[in-house]
From TrEMBL:
<feature type="compositionally biased region" description="Polar residues">
    <location>
        <begin position="8"/>
        <end position="40"/>
    </location>
</feature>
<dbReference type="InterPro" id="IPR017946">
    <property type="entry name" value="PLC-like_Pdiesterase_TIM-brl"/>
</dbReference>
<dbReference type="Pfam" id="PF03009">
    <property type="entry name" value="GDPD"/>
</dbReference>
<dbReference type="InterPro" id="IPR030395">
    <property type="entry name" value="GP_PDE_dom"/>
</dbReference>
<dbReference type="GO" id="GO:0006629">
    <property type="term" value="P:lipid metabolic process"/>
</dbReference>
<protein>
    <submittedName>
        <fullName>Glycerophosphodiester phosphodiesterase</fullName>
    </submittedName>
</protein>
<feature type="region of interest" description="Disordered">
    <location>
        <begin position="1"/>
        <end position="40"/>
    </location>
</feature>
<feature type="domain" description="GP-PDE">
    <location>
        <begin position="46"/>
        <end position="286"/>
    </location>
</feature>
<dbReference type="GO" id="GO:0008081">
    <property type="term" value="F:phosphoric diester hydrolase activity"/>
</dbReference>
Amino acid sequence: MFAYSGRLSEQSQGPFTSRTPASRRASTTAGDARSMNDQLTTMRRPRVVAHRGANDVAPENTLAAVRAAVTIGVDAVEVDVQCTRDGVPVVLHDATLARTTDIARRYPHRAHDPVSTFTYAEIRQLDAGSWRDDAFAGEPVPTLEQVLDALRATGVGLLLEIKHPETQPRLVDAVADVLACFSPGVAVTAQSFDAASLHAFGRLLPEVPRGLLVHHAPRQPVLEAWVSAVNPWYGTVSSSYVRRAQLVGLETYVWTANARAAILRAADAGVEGIITDRPQRALDLLRATRRKTSIR
Ligand code: G3P
Ligand code: CA
């Protein structure tokens, strides 16, 4: 790996969506030392993406977690979006509200019903913070619009996972509507495990980059070149995979790398981004070790 300047690297970072994959950058002419030096100064660490916000210091998928991630200085925040019965995109991971809200107290007979069976008026009454700590009592389930507001003008991007779209037929349309109105000023990338939904989303908002979530790095990344990124589980990613993905213009954001060894392994593989439950740890590690994405 090349040595690189962390300071120069940090300064070279653009918006979350504007990074040019290595394969799309101008190649260095053989023997052109000046060009090589120019490239060396633009190398930088992988982007750090706070998984469900900074969920190690605040309840996951809340505005408190989003704001904490901004304070830490991450490059982007990942959240999960679903749809209420009346079509409001809200931020929540699980298919039900049982684990992360006080739904069992408010609506005991509906505690394990799907999110999509509740109206937003019902969901906005819930406490999505107390389950984690009394200090977060009253923290609401945020809407997508509120998350966009919290990120606007911060320079922190949004990696938006379209969650459970196969059981929520209105979700893709509703997310696209909100993004069309409220995403200016926030660099958004959409991602999903559901390829059909990502395709549908791309038809509605082709200007928003899309990442396909997968459990294993694909053998033939070129088959996924219809998206801008393929985001595999970190344990399946190698440097040769990242190189092959870059050759067809695909970025790689791995999930969910939390242990020090996993974070460093992903950085060594040359990934463009690391989605993590330990964003402060990742930033500290990557800055301290001067890890970087590789140049091809
Ligand atoms: O960003 C990828 C990761 O969030 C996928 O897993 O279950 O945490 O949404 P999950
Ligand atoms: Ca997610």
